[in-house]
Amino acid sequence: MKENKKITIHHLFWYFLIFSVIGLIIETLYCYATSGVLESRKGLIWGPFCPVYGVCGAVLIYILDKLNCKSVIKLFIFGFIIGSIAEYILSYGLEAVYGIKFWNYEYLQYNLNGRISLLFSFYWGVLSVILIKFIKPLIDKLVEKIKPHTRNVIELGIFIFLCIDCIATIWGIQTYQNRVLYNNVYRANSNNIILKARESIENNYFTNEKMSKTFPNLRIKTENGEEVWIKTLIEK
Length: 236
Prior knowledge:
Strand 1 (111-112) and strand 2 form a beta hairpin. This protein starts with 8 loop residues before the first helix and ends with a helix. It is built from eight helices and four strands. By secondary structure, the protein is mainly alpha-helical. A two-stranded antiparallel ribbon has the order 1-2.
């Protein structure tokens, strides 16, 4: 009997990266199929990434591998549970970092605080079966084929890019939020090059138009506790 190979940090990195891209494709197609609207479902300002799927996918594979789940039924059940827990925790985590909600399932039946729902938990179960049975073996072969030195250089480069991407995303969303909600537009009060660069980026790159198109579903609670889309406040 063939022994399962140990999942390394390299495997987890590629699981995260590839599932972030696959997740974006799934989200985009699902949105178009259910609403007829083709819009951005990205989680980062640069690149085709939806990190929620990347994190959940990597966590799912790691835990399911540790549990040594082989049957389709076990994979579905554990995937259903683990995926739901991971999504719920990530919902709070992202809200803590960005101060806003990226998704809300309150429009669906059988949801928990709008953060997870029975329907999407079912999808996590199905996705777990597909991940373990079909996608994971392909990714493992890809990782093993790349020479260690080349792989390390590629991973380091992508990791640095993602870190910068995360910082830019947080910066952009906070700028967008402050501008729309509080009419707070940054203006440099000196000729300092760094401050002038900040002013230029915030006012010319992180524009309302760009941010609303990149993150059309960002939500925030108003002073009276009502949850609204930030993009709807631009029109007022």
